[in-house]
Amino acid sequence: MSRHFRKWGIAALREQPNHVAEAQRAAWLKADGVVGKHSISTLTERASKDLHADRLLAALVRIREPSLVIELGTNVGLSGTYMASALSGRGLLKTIDQSADRQVLAKQLFRAAGVEDRIEVITGSFVDSLDDAAAHGFGIAFIDGDHTYDATWWLVDRLLSYAVVGSVLVLDDINHSAQMRRVWGELRRRPGLASLALSDLGVLEVV
Ligand SMILES: C[S@@+](CC[C@H](N)C(=O)[O-])C[C@H]1O[C@@H](n2cnc3c(N)ncnc32)[C@H](O)[C@@H]1O
Q: What is the number of domains present in the chain?
């Protein structure tokens, strides 16, 4: 993957405004090598969130060197591309989404970015697919779909049943709604978990 990933220093992780201007996102996508057959504008239009979160996710993957990352919510593959790019050795990303249409675009992006060999794309609902995906444990799980209180708790509980000490769960959009703020507030107080909030990302580690 792009040599630019290796260049990120702590400056890239400093607190930044949530909204990233289109031009900056486009520049980052290009610099990070996440541009291939897609035009930059197609990608930036389709991806609703800024790229700070994706860069933080990639940094986390690079630091923890998980053999398996599970992503709940593929969409068009931006976060998946970033995380897969940061995998080391035989590391694998399993990404789940019920939208086969979005995953067609995601697969194109994975190919264009040269990370398709490190990614298993699973089409289906989280409820139907999670157990198979997590059956042998995981290093990092990224929860980025169905941002409701009940669904998030269900997903976290289910993932924790496969987790070991050191497993990491990352929730996106923890400030997105009252339901997400509530679930994050409860998770932070849950025994056995260390927590860290980074902007809209909530990071939990099994301790
Ligand atoms: C916010 S997008 C994911 C964005 C992606 N992680 C990224 O950052 O590039 C959420 C995705 O979750 C999927 N999704 C939502 N609820 C789902 C469910 N219950 N089962 C499977 N997929 C679901 C949607 O189809 C959507 O593509």
A: 1
